[in-house]
Design brief:
single chain, about 300 residues, alpha/beta, five-stranded mixed beta sheet, 14 strands, globular
């Protein structure tokens, strides 16, 4: 394998660059290889439309994957929750480093908790999943869609455009803004998106040597959706109607080796109890849940 610096493709937002920098340092520390960051603008970054109108969080992934396959970069770093479900032709998920805190966090100007917000409070989120669960907790508030990087969103709270904002705790930690957090939602209050808090490192599947090298930063104990436990794994799933009026929860437990089957069990259980109808209350693309989270914390 060449010893030239490895080129990491990443979105250009401050959070994305910070995340890619973390991966770069980990690669250098574990393998000795030099790494350089290459900023790439995605279709999602060029559009101000809602994610559900332009294809969901996958719009942040396609440009990076195209650069990988074209040989313009050697690897790409994403938030794991942004990856579309299923394998991509020619692309290998080479590593998922140690997962950070998967929980969601509330940001307010004066440190107020969700319960303290006034009736009709305007709460910003780019995620249908978060919006639906907010309405489960406080049916009287008004979730509104918000786009832009984390700094832009935080400014909307600071200048009074929003009463509150919900973002991923891990992302706020990475950009050094935990000072803005007023409340951290436990998973039984607001279930995280599948893969939330974890990073995904992809490369061209044909580059077997690079796939092996990136394995040095992979965490084999990673978990998906919201799972907990060591010897016995418990997987919790949630589907919420976009208007917060209906919520279905399911869970299954088993060995770590049965993790994939547990996911199928929970999905089958939820579908059997009407999850598809729940997600169709307004429109399937607007529904919250683990299979299509629609989150965008960048």
């Amino acid at each position: 394998m060449s010893t030239a610096p490895l080129r990491i493709g990443t979105r250009r937002s401050p959070m994305a660059m910070t995340q890619a920098g973390f991966v770069a340092r980990a690669i250098t520390a574990q393998t000795g290889r030099d790494v350089q960051l290459v900023g790439i603008e995605s279709a999602g970054d060029r559009s101000s439309a809602l994610l559900t109108q332009i294809g969901g969080t996958g719009v942040f992934v396609s440009s990076l994957r195209a650069s990988l396959l074209a040989g313009e970069v050697d690897l790409a770093v994403h938030s794991l929750k942004d990856l579309p479900t299923g394998a991509a032709a020619g692309i290998a998920l080479a590593a998922v480093p140690v997962r950070d805190d998967p929980r969601d966090a509330l940001v307010t100007r004066d440190g107020a908790k969700l319960a303290d917000l006034p009736r009709g409070a305007v709460v910003g989120t780019g995620s249908p999943r978060r919006a639906a669960q907010l309405l489960l907790l406080r049916p009287d508030i008004r979730p509104v869609p918000v786009r832009g990087n984390a700094g832009t969103r935080l400014a909307k709270v600071e200048n009074g455009d929003l009463d509150a904002l919900v973002l991923g705790y891990a992302g706020l930690s990475r950009i050094g803004r935990l000072d803005a957090v007023a409340q951290v939602f436990e998973p039984d209050e607001m279930m995280p998106a599948a893969g939330q808090g974890a990073l995904a490192v992809e490369c061209n599947q044909a580059r077997e040597g690079l796939v092996a090298l990136l394995g040095a930063i992979d965490d084999p104990a990673r978990v998906g959706a919201y799972a907990s436990g060591m010897d016995v794994l418990r997987l919790d799933g949630l589907v919420v109607a976009a208007n917060g009026g209906t919520a279905l929860r399911g869970s299954a437990s088993g060995s770590l080796a049965a993790a994939e089957e547990l996911g199928r069990q929970v999905a089958a259980d939820l579908l059997g109890r009407g999850a598809a109808r729940c997600m169709a209350v307004s429109d399937a693309a607007e529904a919250g849940g683990h299979l299509t989270s629609g989150d965008d914390d960048k």
